[in-house]
Design goal:
The structure holds three protein chains of three kinds.
Chain A lengths: L15 E2 L13 E5 L8 H5 L5 E4 L4 E4 L8 H5 L5 E5 H7 L1
Antiparallel strand pairs in A: 2-5, 3-4
Chain B lengths: L2 E5 L1 H11 L4 E4 L6 H12 L6 E4 L3 H14 L3 E5 L1 H6 L1 H9 L5 E6 L13 H4 L7 E4 L3 H15 L8 E6 L8 E5 L2 H7 L15 E3 L5 H33 L7 E4 L6 E5 L2 H16 L4 E6 L1 E3 L3 H8 L4 E6 L9 H10 L7 E6 L9 H14 L7 E3 L6
Parallel strand pairs in B: 2-3, 2-4, 4-5, 5-7, 6-7, 11-12, 11-14, 14-15, 15-16
Antiparallel strand pairs in B: 1-8, 6-13, 10-12
Chain C lengths: L21 H13 L3 E6 L2 H4 L13 E4 L4 H14 L6 E7 H6 L2 H10 L3 E7 L39 H6 L5 E5 L4 H12 L4 E7 L3 H5 L5 H10 L5 E5 L2 E6 L7 H5 L10 H21 L9
Classes of the chains: A alpha+beta, B alpha/beta, C alpha/beta.
Chain lengths: 96, 392, 300
């Protein structure tokens, strides 16, 4: 865990600047989703991801996933054309 | 230049809230504070106070409403007593720990059973550990002045701690006296508009009152601790400043009455005990007994240094408690004793627990008590005297 | 609303919630509609506890971890404060759980609605006190195992199935209220939009299937919500201008038995209990249909 960041001195009390995240959740999970060529860019997986971990590149119709993906598998499940597969992280590194 | 009004302590508090330009009042009625919120509602209805009155369903929600308003960036106020204050308990810790500058008026009343609507200080004493600053007033005039001072103390950047202003139920809350009320313009000079912190502000997003473990938690608690300690000096400074502008001031943390050279000093809090003790001290002095009264105005932060200073050369100290920490003794007595710890020689301390459930404490009661203590000491040192304990 | 029109900005990332958490999805979708000019009041519950412990602060918008019982009152206070300051462009939103709404927070919510100040109250219903380890709440369905109802068949409180929180809220004649589920995201987001546009209090009761507490694989969250609606265990309806309507009526209602057999929380249910649940669900649907003043409008 990263060391604590400085508290805002204008506001006394147990309050903190929003959005500071010191934990890399992704480290706890061993898999990640891969969006194969079957993908029609319907964006349902993007919509249904609870963590908002899927990123869109509309111009290229490309989907990528952020490191904090929790491997819940919802994206795999909701894809109407079964274009998303969950693979071990090491395997993906080998592919690229 | 202001006006004089013949009003009760509760009404005086309402006038102070009006002049403080409070913007949100979130309150629930309970005897004996109800006239406060009724009077405020009338001010709003008559257009004399521009505020939103949230009529909540419980005291817990009353303080929560104030907290919401404070985070939205406006000055807020509420009042309670007795069972209501107990219902508010969680929120008191919340508001103090979150460092929100809210002012709460308490018309001190007993908490039953035995059921009683009458005066006692058990309700606010029970809340002494929540982190609120606690100020106890003696009269309707002092209630008015202190509520205004309370906003200034709470909103001081070194403090940012909520303040509880306590007035004796019925004895001060419902008794009419002549109260001097300055002009709005004069009060505006003393109490500037509330400058909101960027708490709930989309331009500066924050996570408020968040969770923390051990080190960070302790660090924040230490800051809270330091802030309420710093409040002691602020309470004194604000009282002085008020005195310069409006003539009246109350000694800051304590008010020492004829304590110089006193052999016996009666320590009191609130109007009933203080009033009786001051009159008794005058009568005793006339009769040759060197008596004095130390009125504790700020109970939190406890003015240990001032208490020690004024009581050090007395032989006997009698602490009047309109409360009892069952299982030990009156709370004020414990705090006084702790403040005197280590003094050589140390005054003998007797605890008188009375004026509970609305029982009266008269100047004669205090005189009798003082004479009795002088007679039995030092053979029968200290001890607790419960009012009426000798009656069958 | 087209999927491509939905905002891409993410206002909550890095949450410590369980994988596949429907509450998190509900919050994420609500923020997509509301944008970042919001303030969130989040009492004790999953959405505060997993999102507010230093050093992980996933919310990128202002949020306040509030006392359990007082969400309604805090919302009233914030709304009043903003109004007194002339601030009109910031949504005041509560994100409370079923425990914090139907149980400990009910009185405060009730009075807040009566106060008629502008706020959006979103109740995220995962049907138990999930945050503290799956304890029974008044919205736990009949027959569900929780840690405080290990023998659900002898639990008196849930004999009548879930407390009808929605009926309690609309009994206040609130300007806008709706039930929703993130498994029907467009219906839900449209309701959030309507709530935000309401001049006064609004309430959305969202069923959020909980993979940890209900006992199903995390990937099945969306499917579970759909089954809840298709079996009648949950309804999608709307209360607007004093009128109640269904947003969606399943054409072929599936038996409750199909719903309970795929969640481990219902594993103690015997045929007679399932029959009873089916009966309760049918009765509730009948009662609702009697309250309906308009024919069903099908959600987009």
């Amino acid at each position: 865990m990263s060391p604590p960041r400085k508290v805002s001195k204008t506001v006394p009390g147990p309050h903190w600047k929003a959005g500071e995240t010191g934990v890399n959740i992704g480290e706890w999970f061993s898999q990640e989703p891969v969006f194969t060529e079957k993908c029609t860019y319907c964006l349902l997986c993007w919509l249904y991801c609870p963590d908002g971990a899927i990123r869109r590149e509309d111009s290229k119709k490309l989907l990528t996933v952020e490191p904090f993906c929790k491997n819940c598998g919802i994206c795999v499940e909701v894809c109407p054309v079964k274009a998303v597969v969950m693979v071990p992280k090491a395997e993906k590194k080998g592919k690229s | 230049m202001g006006e004089k009004k013949f009003i009760t302590g509760d009404e005086a508090v309402a006038y102070a809230v009006k002049l403080a330009r409070v913007k949100v009042v979130s309150a629930y009625p309970i005897t004996p504070q109800t006239p406060i919120v009724e009077r405020i509602a009338k001010f709003i209805a008559d257009g004399e106070l521009e505020a939103d009155y949230i009529r909540v369903e419980s005291e817990h929600s009353a303080m929560a409403g104030c907290l919401g308003a404070c985070m939205a960036g406006v000055r807020s106020f509420t009042a309670s007593a007795s069972h209501g204050l107990a219902y508010m308990h969680e929120m008191l810790s919340y508001v103090a720990g979150g460092r929100f500058p809210i002012v709460l008026a308490v018309a001190n009343r007993s908490i039953g059973p035995p059921w009683s609507i009458w005066g006692e200080q058990q309700d606010s004493i029970q809340q002494r550990d929540t982190g609120f600053i606690q100020l106890y007033v003696e009269s309707a005039q002092e209630a008015f002045d202190t509520v205004l001072q309370a906003f200034k103390i709470a909103e001081n950047p070194e403090v940012f701690t909520p303040v509880m202003v306590c007035l004796d139920g019925f004895h001060v809350s419902h008794t009419e006296e002549l109260v001097e009320i300055p002009d709005q313009a004069e009060i505006d000079q003393f109490l500037p508009p509330f400058t909101p912190n960027a708490l709930l502000n989309p331009d500066e997003p924050m996570s408020l009152t968040m969770g923390a473990s051990d080190r960070l938690y302790t660090k924040w608690r230490y800051e809270q601790f330091q802030a309420i300690q710093a409040a002691a000096k602020v309470i004194e400074a604000v009282d002085k400043e008020y005195g310069k502008l409006f003539v009246r001031s109350y000694g800051g943390l304590v008010d020492a009455y004829r304590c110089k050279g006193a052999d016996v000093i009666v320590v009191t809090m609130g109007g009933l005990a203080t009033g009786a003790a001051k009159e008794a001290a005058d009568a005793l002095r006339k009769a040759g007994i060197k008596a004095g009264v130390l009125k504790v105005r700020a109970f939190r932060p406890f003015p240990a240094e001032a208490v020690r200073k004024h009581l050090a050369s007395a032989k006997q100290v009698i602490v009047i408690d309109r409360d009892c920490s069952y299982g030990y003794e009156g709370a004020l007595c414990s705090e006084v004793k702790a403040a005197l710890c280590g003094l050589q020689p140390c005054p003998q301390v007797t605890n008188f627990i009375g004026g509970i459930g609305g029982a009266d404490i008269t100047p004669v009661d205090v005189q009798v008590l003082v004479k009795k203590v002088i007679k039995t000491a030092p053979h029968k040192p200290g001890g607790i005297v419960f009012q009426y304990q000798e009656e069958k | 609303m087209k999927i491509t029109e939905i905002a891409q900005e993410e206002y909550i990332t890095g949450s410590l919630s369980c994988a596949g958490c429907a509450e998190l999805l509900a919050v994420r979708l609500a923020l997509k509609v509301l944008g970042n000019r919001v303030v969130l009041i989040v009492p004790a519950g999953c959405m505060s506890t997993v999102n507010c412990y230093y050093p992980q602060l996933p919310f990128r918008v202002p949020m306040f971890v509030g006392p359990f019982a007082a969400t309604g009152a805090i919302l009233s206070g914030v709304s009043a404060g903003f109004r007194m300051r002339g601030i009109k462009d910031v949504h005041v939103v509560g994100l409370a759980g079923d425990g914090g709404t139907a149980d400990i927070g009910l009185a405060s919510l009730s009075q807040a609605i009566v106060g008629r100040r502008k706020f959006i109250y979103i109740c995220l219903d995962n049907e138990a006190y999930m945050n503290t380890g799956i304890q029974w709440s008044s919205t736990t369905p009949y027959g569900a195992i929780t840690t405080t109802t290990p023998l659900p068949e002898i639990v008196r409180e849930s004999e009548q199935n879930k407390k009808d929180l929605f009926s309690i809220v609309i009994a206040h004649r609130i300007p806008y209220a709706a039930t929703a589920c993130p498994s029907y995201p467009f219906d839900y987001m449209e309701k959030v939009k309507r709530a935000a546009a309401t001049d006064g209090p609004s309430f959305i009761h969202v069923l959020t299937p909980c993979q940890s507490g209900w006992g199903f694989p995390s990937s099945k969250t969306i499917a579970m919500g759909k089954m809840a609606v298709e079996s009648g265990m949950w309804h999608l309806c709307e209360y607007r201008d004093g009128k109640l309507s269904f947003s969606y009526v399943p054409k072929n209602k599936i038996p409750v038995a199909d719903y309970v057999k795929i969640q481990t929380r219902f594993r103690r249910m015997k045929p007679e209990h399932i029959d009873r649940l089916q009966k309760l669900v049918d009765e509730r649907l009948q009662a609702m249909q009697e309250m309906i003043s308009e024919p069903a409008e099908v959600a987009p």
